[in-house]
Every structure is written in structure tokens, then in C-alpha cells.
Amino acid sequence: MKNEEHNFSRNDQSNLTMIPGAFARALRTNVIWQFIRFMVINIKMLVVVSKSH
Length: 53
Fold this sequence. Notes:
Distance between the termini: 54 Å
Number of helices: 2
Order of helices and strands: EEHH
Number of strands: 2
Helix content: 55-70%
Largest sheet: 2 strands, antiparallel
Shape: elongated
Number of domains: 1
Radius of gyration: 18 Å
């Protein structure tokens, strides 16, 4: 297997489906990181809305 194909696997739906690595899976399931991400997105939305009013 080539190095750049490491995160891809074959299944019935698609020939190449990307599979997240261990670090990406850890971030997706970490509640603290999700809360920080939620706050950053909300702050960005507040900035955009405040510019329009």
C-alpha cells in the first residue's frame, strides 16, 4: 500500500472512502474540544451578525 493511501479503505458504497486517523477520532469524541469549537463558531457568528446590523 502506498503511503498516501494509508487513510483510505474500500467498501461497498465507494471505492475510496477516507477513514479518520486516531487523532481526528479523539478530537471528534472529546467533549472539552467540542465545547471549545462550539464557542469559537458562536463568536464567529456574532462577529458576522454584528457587522450586518
